[in-house]
User: Which sequence fits this backbone?
């Protein structure tokens, strides 16, 4: 029975992957690439390369949708042709019939995770770089201007509450990919004296793990804000964190980062203390972890809905799939926005749609099994 159901599920799943991938690619990338070919002179071979590099990212979203379509179409057809009734007459419960779809959906979950973590981010980032090089874009893959990085320290007040104070502020006018230019650093991390560094340029010295500053001035200020000293220099090495350079170099979009890269970015944002960016990244990381499991949810919901005795054609199954998919992504967007606003925790905001889908699927499964 498991082998028979698996064979029946495979063709509509592959059809769904092809159909949903084609639709999403046409809407998201194809028309934009054609416009760049016509208006910006993008070579056709480069456009084709970018199109192929976009495929893994789109397929990540087509896998869950195809799982829902395949289970709904297959179980609906088997139900309308009385094959499921025959299986129940042989003593096979609805739970056992649905289990096959759930196990296969879990395999799709693993495949979705591999694509979402290992293949899609790298391919998507490569597509961005390829497009920029082909168009000779003035926007490089790193942050070019106004590199701003604040660092805070936490202090405990007399009433027991905690507060954040600025510990260090790093600012650079420009970054050309190798060196910073027009730097101003306010360093309040040392006890007893604050220093303000103004420099024409600076490079990160990877061997000594220090910054090499060139043509600048260091202003030393006492804790009572009185003048202390002024030091002019042509070359000065200062032990400051590498984080501003990492922040400038790491200009990837969320869809171009895997979980480990997103966690590294989260540590950088935590040092900076921007609560809004930190929370948004926390939600995105949890969503990246939770998203592949929607394949199991869709497999459960699709197989249960298809097992309901009814005569449903392919068109109706496709329509129901679209409604379920739209409802899921709507809930995902709303819960994610509420989590970023601080109403939900990042964990709840990311996993709530999956939990809602699981409860709905189990409820429908119990109702169908009792018939």
Assistant:
């Amino acid at each position: 029975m498991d082998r028979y159901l698996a064979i029946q599920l495979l063709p509509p799943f592959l059809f769904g992957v092809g159909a949903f991938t084609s639709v999403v690619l046409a809407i998201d990338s194809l028309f934009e690439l054609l416009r760049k070919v016509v208006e910006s002179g993008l070579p056709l071979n480069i456009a084709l390369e970018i199109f192929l590099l976009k495929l893994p990212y789109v397929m990540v979203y087509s896998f869950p949708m195809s799982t829902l379509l395949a289970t709904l179409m297959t179980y609906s057809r088997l139900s309308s042709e009385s094959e499921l009734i025959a299986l129940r007459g042989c003593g096979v419960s609805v739970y056992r019939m649905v289990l096959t779809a759930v196990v296969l959906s879990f395999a799709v979950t693993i495949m979705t995770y591999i694509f979402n973590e290992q293949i899609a981010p790298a391919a998507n980032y490569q597509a961005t770089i390829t497009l920029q090089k082909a168009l000779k874009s003035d926007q490089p893959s790193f942050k070019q201007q106004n590199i701003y990085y604040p660092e805070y320290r936490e202090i405990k007040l007399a009433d027991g509450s905690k507060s954040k104070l600025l510990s260090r502020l790093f600012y650079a006018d420009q970054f050309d990919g190798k060196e910073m230019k027009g730097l101003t650093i306010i360093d309040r991390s040392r006890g007893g004296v604050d220093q303000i560094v103004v420099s024409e340029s600076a490079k990160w010295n990877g061997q000594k793990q220090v910054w090499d500053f060139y043509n600048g001035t260091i202003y030393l200020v006492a804790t009572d804000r009185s003048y202390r000293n002024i030091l002019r220099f042509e070359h000065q090495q200062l032990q400051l964190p590498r984080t501003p350079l990492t922040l400038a170099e790491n200009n990837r979009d969320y869809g171009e980062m895997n979980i480990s890269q997103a966690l590294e970015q989260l540590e950088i944002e935590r040092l900076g203390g921007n609560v809004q960016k930190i929370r948004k990244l926390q939600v995105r990381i949890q969503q990246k972890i939770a998203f592949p499991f929607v394949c199991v949810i869709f497999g459960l919901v699709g197989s249960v809905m298809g097992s309901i005795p009814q005569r449903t054609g392919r068109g109706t199954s496709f329509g129901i799939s679209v409604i379920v998919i739209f409802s899921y992504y709507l809930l995902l967007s709303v819960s994610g926005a509420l989590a970023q606003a601080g109403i939900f925790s990042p964990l709840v905001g990311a996993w709530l749609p999956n939990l809602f889908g699981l409860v709905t699927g189990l409820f429908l499964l119990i109702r169908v099994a009792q018939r």
In short: Strands lie at 145-156, 162-175, 180-187, 193-205, 210-222, 227-238. The chain has a mean pLDDT of 83.
